[in-house]
Write a structure and sequence with these properties.
The complex is a heterotrimer of chains A (396), B (486) and C (125). By secondary structure, chain A is an alpha/beta fold. Helices cover 20% and strands 34% of the residues of chain A. Chain A has helices at 2-9, 47-60, 123-132, 148-159, 178-185, 245-249, 287-305, 382-385; strands spanning 16-18, 34-36, 45-46, 64-66, 70-74, 79-84, 87-92, 96-98, 102-104, 120-122, 135-136, 140-144, 163-168, 192-193, 196-202, 209-214, 227-230, 233-236, 240-242, 254-255, 260-261, 274-276, 316-320, 324-328, 331-332, 338-344, 348-357, 360-370, 376-380, 391-395. In chain A, the strands form ten sheets. Chain A has a five-stranded parallel beta sheet with strand order 10-18-12-13-14. A five-stranded mixed beta sheet of chain A has the order 25-23-30-27-28, with no helix packed on it. Chain A has a three-stranded antiparallel beta sheet with strand order 5-6-7. In chain A, a hairpin with a 4-residue loop joins strand 20 (254-255) and strand 21 (260-261). Chain A is globular and about 60 Å long. Chain B is built from twelve helices and 23 strands. In chain B, the strands form five sheets. In chain B, strands 1, 2, 9, 10, 11, 12, 19 and 20 form an eight-stranded mixed beta sheet that branches. In chain B, strands 13, 15, 16, 17 and 18 form a five-stranded antiparallel beta sheet that branches. In chain B, helix 1 (14-23) runs parallel beside helix 8 (349-365) and helix 10 crosses helix 11 (433-440). The longest helix of chain B is centred in the N-terminal third of the chain and has 20 residues, at 62-81. Chain C is 17% helix and 38% strand. In chain C, strand 1 (2-7) and strand 2 (16-22) form a beta hairpin. The chains are: A alpha/beta (396), B alpha+beta (486), C alpha+beta (125). Chains in contact: A-B, A-C, B-C. At the A-C interface, strand 3, helix 2, helix 3 and helix 5 of A face strand 5 and strand 6 of C.
């Protein structure tokens, strides 16, 4: 929605928003907890409220929407093959912005040993049932993964009368925000077990429990450290995967580190006129940043339509250096200011994030607290990079 | 309540349903008793889906005869029942010199069994069929195919039902008494059934059924095969089946890759005797081995390509000490007239199923008159493929006729609302989410139901009045939910 | 006298605070170290003596296009009041239509907050 609103604001009067659900808002509709909009609106809103701001904005601009419409395929000429109750048709687009979000990693994808009983859900699916369909998924819960979705669901389940036995995190540190550790776990005396993971599922019909074990430095279970946790529900919060099915089928170049499209400083993918933003580009932790990035995509898409984005003279690659898991965009033109988005590989304190062109320091940012779960942004000015050969971002 | 039938079949697996369908051609009263809430919950749905050519079986055995016969029948059967089948062929590859002799023996054996089209290929010929393949030479069996095993099992049951066979699901046979007319069966659920002829097609539990009649000579040793399912992204990698030549006493698991008719790739199966006939657990050890094999055999694979694990159990008659295979037992018992006993139908049970149906039909005919019906409906309604497999023009037409085809419910597999509704409203109905899954293919994609299960639940609630306590995954106590939030 | 460790959540710096306090019916904070701004010790005091929270939940809606309307507290309430506020939320039923911001429960369980709707729920057609 942010991209659509931005495209309208930037002067395009022929914007179409395609949404496969029957309502706008995407995953925000089920995120009924607050914390959205602190940066964007200066308020602590819930997901639905945050979404409504954009719905209202787009409606005010009389933006065009097709609900219940799924894009099944896109080709390299930006033809979209869409399906809805109204028909199966082809839509031709001069510019496309991909904002399909992500899906959750499943029990099957992590090859969880044991049986396959009922009672195993990804945290987001459980959230959907509880918040949107008034269905309670279970009574005695184990949560695998300490990412924010898992923590939020730990609190939600507890407030709704379930007993959360614990949150089990594979890594030696939690991937959730400290605010959520406090307000979702500590407030309710829910134990957080670090460097511990679920290694087996039990139960032939409904889940009866899980075996957990401490992990060594190579994420292998430590013999003898196993214990059984009785439960009837297992919620998985073990990672989000950008949903780039459409992009892959269109042969858009995908960056393995993000599982999202490889983009330049206009958020354009390898197909001219096709842009990518939000969680489908890389998984975000704050919706506010999704909106900001997507607004940029909308702006660049309109510039592209107006012929204002010429193919860059050069393509300056940006590399993830020491301590950095990934940086986005993957390449820049050097012709415009750019905000780099990055994630560090491990938690640390009192560091400097540096952007270098060889020996030359192009930008830096001092930070008291760095964590893989918190996306970092660094602004880089065009004049500093116009002559750059290649950039490297590292943690010093 | 007593239900009196001419024939009762115990077990709604692919074999039991094939038998039932054959019997449904005749004007008799017949029923199938199945302990689970849906058909095909055992070995029938949990295998590689291969339609074997018949090269691996000793001439003169039932396995050899029925497999070749079943293989030949399968094409027409699938066409009638609207089940997907592809005769893609198989290469049995000689990796070492010593294997070449094996290939020739297999060819000879196959030809003795009546397997058509066998030929030994050299490297160049192999490369043409499967670029990049390793190995020295290969035996090509063009009549090997792949099929949707649960699709066939369900289709046979639906068609048998439509043709008058009664299906009693969720009925577990507890005791069998012999009576003057035949058999008196009582189930754990408190039901009673009587029949003149009783057919034991209980698969993993066929020995338990035997014991209820005082037959102690059989014992089933469940042998588990674990599988991993790969994302459809890799489906182009294999044009036909490629198996290594069998080694006598060879080390390792001999794991292989198998295409499915829907575009996934299966890695497996493993081989492990287990203690219980329902021990379907997956193990870390085997899954790690399967992953390693996957990475070796398919270079382009990544961790994200593994989407699901499952396992199946083989109903082996041979104990672990003996290993190997024993021939099918398909007998009309002289000591218990009226009792037709099937024991140890493991591979190639799926391929043989149509032929077993015929064989058992003939055995029944020795016991009862079988007057032919003139109202037998051989063809099943619907189409073999999914909406997503149609051309854009066909899709546009269908959506224009029925908007339910335009509403995609399962995003990963592009399964439409119409297909989900058809699955729910099939002649046998569904009692479980897995039943819906196997009939529609929804929830079988990358997200494994993460996106579509909430939508499916909304459909079941709104259109069919389901309440939270009504949803079962597979078994009677496998509830999905605990109740309402408010 | 005991020491407690808390991560301050007021800003992304997430300063690790170490608080020395005297336990009792009214705990007394003796020392706070680890903060980078003066809001740290103020927050630590509030958090240890009377932690405040906002909560979000759902209220049953009749006749709407959703079975539940998502709600939240419009201001922070004491952590200790959450259970009683949840009781109120669980027992209330409202009727569609509901607009974002509608006050559905006023000052539940002696708190000073209101429970407000956070999504529109239209009357089901």
């Amino acid at each position: 929605m942010s991209a659509a609103v931005s495209a309208r604001q930037n002067g395009c009067d022929n914007v179409l928003l395609l949404e496969r659900d029957r309502i706008l808002g995407g995953i925000l509709n089920q995120c009924i907890h607050d914390g959205f909009g602190l940066h964007r609106f200066g308020e602590a809103l819930t997901g639905p409220e945050y979404a409504q701001r954009y719905i209202d904005e787009y409606e005010k601009m009389k933006g065009e929407v097709m609900l219940g419409t799924i894009v099944l395929n896109m080709d390299a000429e930006r033809n979209l093959f869409v399906s809805s109750r109204n028909g199966f048709t082809k839509i031709e687009a001069r510019a496309v912005i991909l904002a399909m979000g992500c899906r959750e990693r499943t029990a099957g994808a992590i090859s969880l040993p044991g049986t396959r009983p009922s009672g195993i859900y990804t945290a987001g699916a459980a959230q959907n049932f509880i918040n949107l369909q008034n269905i309670m998924v279970g009574k005695r819960v184990v949560i695998m993964g300490s990412g924010d979705i898992g923590l939020i669901m730990a609190r939600r389940m507890t407030l709704e009368g379930a007993r959360v036995e614990g949150v089990f995190e594979l890594l030696p540190y939690s991937s959730g925000l400290p605010r959520n550790i406090q307000q979702c776990l500590n407030d309710y005396d829910i134990p957080l077990h670090l460097a511990t993971s679920v290694i087996q599922i039990h139960g032939k019909e409904r889940l009866t429990g899980v075996t957990v074990a401490r992990m060594d430095g190579n994420f292998k279970p430590i013999q003898g450290s196993e214990w059984f946790v009785p439960c009837d529900t297992l919620l998985l919060s073990v990672g989000l995967i950008p949903e780039n099915e459409l992009s892959r089928n269109a042969s858009i170049a995908i960056e393995p580190r993000t599982s999202g499209a490889s983009v330049d400083d206009t958020l354009m993918t390898s197909i001219p006129g096709v842009f990518s933003c939000g969680n489908v580009l890389h998984v975000h932790d704050l919706a506010d940043w999704v909106s900001e990035e997507s607004a940029l995509a909308g702006q660049f898409a309109v510039q592209y339509l107006n012929g204002e984005i010429s193919p860059p003279q050069k393509s300056i690659p940006i590399l993830a250096g020491a301590g950095v898991r990934y940086v986005l965009p993957q390449s820049i033109s050097g012709q415009r200011d750019v905000t780099l988005s990055l994630r560090v590989a491990s938690p640390s304190r009192n560091r400097v994030v540096k952007v270098n062109d060889g020996e030359r320091l192009v930008a830096n940012k001092k930070m008291l607290r760095l964590h893989p779960a918190e996306m970092i942004h660094i602004k880089v000015k065009a004049e500093k990079i116009s002559e750059a050969g290649r950039l490297e971002v590292s943690v010093a | 309540m007593t239900n009196f039938y001419d024939v009762i079949v115990i077990g709604a697996g692919v074999v039991g349903n094939a038998i039932a369908r054959e019997l449904s051609r005749f004007d008799i009263k017949a029923a199938v008793l199945e302990q689970e809430l849906d058909v095909g919950g055992g070995t029938s749905s949990r295998n590689s889906g291969v339609v074997h050519s018949g090269i691996h079986y000793k001439p003169g055995t039932l396995r050899a005869k029925l497999d070749v016969q079943g293989n030949a029948m399968m094409g027409a059967l699938c066409s009638d029942l609207k089940v997907k089948i592809q005769y893609i062929g198989k290469l049995t590859v000689a990796q070492e010199e010593a294997d070449i002799k094996t290939l020739h023996s297999l060819k000879e054996q196959g030809e003795a069994n009546g397997v058509p089209g066998l030929s030994i290929l050299n490297r160049e010929q192999m490369e043409r069929l499967q670029p990049g393949i390793g190995g020295l030479m290969a035996l090509h069996s063009p009549s090997t195919g792949i099929i949707c095993p649960y699709g066939l099992t369900i289709a046979l049951a639906e068609n048998a039902y439509v043709n008058g066979i009664s299906y009693h699901l969720g009925q577990q046979v507890a005791a069998i008494n012999r009576t003057a007319e035949g058999f008196d069966i009582s189930t754990r659920q408190g039901e009673r059934f009587r029949s003149r002829v009783l057919i034991n097609s209980a698969g993993l539990y066929s020995d338990a059924i035997c014991r209820m009649l005082g037959i102690d000579e059989y014992r089933i040793y469940p042998c588990r095969g674990e599988y991993l399912i790969l994302d459809k992204r890799l489906s182009g990698s294999l044009s036909l089946l490629v198996y290594p030549a069998p080694h006598k006493g060879g080390a390792g698991l001999g794991i292989h890759l198998t295409n499915t008719v829907d575009g996934n790739i299966l890695i497996g199966p493993s081989n492990e005797y287990v203690g219980e006939a329902d021990d379907y657990a997956s193990t870390a050890e085997i899954m790690n081995l399967l992953k390693k094999e996957g990475h070796e055999l398919l270079p382009g694979i990544s961790a994200a390509d593994f989407i699901r694990n499952f396992s199946g159990l083989r109903a082996k008659q041979a104990p672990p000490s003996e290993g190997g295979f024993r021939d099918f037992v398909i007998e009309s018992r002289k000591d218990i007239p009226g009792f037709i006993n099937l024991v140890g139908i493991e591979s190639p049970g799926l391929t043989s199923a149509p032929a077993i149906g015929l064989m058992v039909r003939n055995l029944v005919e020795e016991l009862l008159p079988l007057p032919l019906k003139d109202s037998f409906i051989a063809e099943r309604e619907g189409r073999a493929g999914f909406f997503f497999e149609l051309s854009p023009e066909e899709k546009a037409d269908l959506v224009a006729q029925n908007p339910d085809y335009g509403e995609v419910v399962c995003r990963c597999e592009q399964i439409t609302r119409k297909e989900v509704l058809d699955a729910i409203q099939n002649p046998l109905g569904i009692r479980t989410i897995n039943g819906l899954k196997y009939r529609s293919r929804a929830m079988m994609g990358r997200c494994q139901g993460g996106f579509c299960l909430p939508r499916i639940v909304a459909i079941l609630e709104k259109e069919f009045g389901y309440r939270p306590e009504d949803y079962l995954l597979q078994h009677a106590s496998s509830k999905l939910f605990a109740g309402r939030v408010r | 006298m005991i020491k407690k460790e808390l991560t301050c959540v007021l800003c992304p710096n997430g300063c690790p605070l170490e608080i020395t306090l005297e336990e009792g019916p009214t705990p007394v904070i003796k020392e706070v170290v680890g903060y980078h701004c003066k809001r740290g010790p103020e927050w630590a005091e509030q958090e240890l003596i009377n932690p405040m929270r906002t909560i979000a939940s759902s209220i049953l809606v009749g006749g709407g296009d959703f079975p539940l309307v998502s709600v939240r507290t419009d201001s922070a309430i004491p952590l200790a009041s959450i259970a009683k506020v949840m009781e109120a939320i669980k027992t209330v039923r409202v009727k569609a239509p509901v607009r974002i911001g509608d006050i559905l429960i006023s000052k539940p369980a002696d708190t000073s907050c209101n429970i407000i709707a956070t999504r529109h729920v239209r009357t089901a057609s």
